[in-house]
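Case study 2.
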Amino acid sequence: MRPPRRLAAGLCIAASLLCAAPVFCQPRATTTGPDGLRIPHARPEPSSDEAGLWDATARAERSAKASGEVNADLALNAYVRHLICKLAPDYGDDLRALVMNRPFLNASAAPNGYVEVYTGLLLRTENEDQLAFVLGHEITHFARNHSLKAWRHTRNAMNGALLLSTGVALAAGAASHSAAGNGGAGAARTVNTISSTARDLNNLVYLNAIASIFAFDRDDESEADRLGYARAMRAGYRGAAAIDMWNEVLDEARASEFEAVRHGDSRASIFDTHPLTTERISALKKTRPRRSGRRP
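Prediction:
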């Protein structure tokens, strides 16, 4: 059944409001240079949105330090910090790391320079070359200010989704009120149709917003793989170790007793934030580190 005319008209109004809405402020990152790389030792302007993101990650850092998850092995923490400095001599004073007692194959680098390395990653990597690739990947996220880009993109996508959802709700409410006021045997059915259509449209608005967020992240993940690989190679690490690691992750997934995990590398969905594993392996095989220029 086609949506009632009043709802269709309301949706047109909502769409026009969205197009006419002011562009949400996106000041240029004050820590990023003209070449797109973070400027060593730079800090954001206090009034900028980037400073707000730094404040949020600083609170997360304080919370992590106060938790019971920080690994107490001073030598292990010192080793990880040394490795990060070796991979990122240009950001040696900007990055600081904590080893966290978490079982996941993961690490992260916050925009304020706070790096977390999980014990699950240290246990799963077979050698320092593999660990260097993962840390180079995270350092690239930091160096390219990917988290700031993702945060701005998420904020604007969700603001746009909220505006359009509000327009849908207002249009549906007006159409339902009008239909109910007309009375008749079909009034209740019309109101239900309007409400159902509005719910479906709002779900679509939300899913499209989420999809746009994660599609954006995939590009940055691919860049972090490529440039993190080059960074590790320049530091003297064996590039093939990165490919070995992803092959091991892929073999592990294929051996899983869960079908969704076994075929996860070959299926895409709107919620895939990382490039598919086979895709990452293929891209890394084609990667050649740059021999000159600034470090990524």
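Residues 165 and 204 are 10 Å apart (CA to CA).
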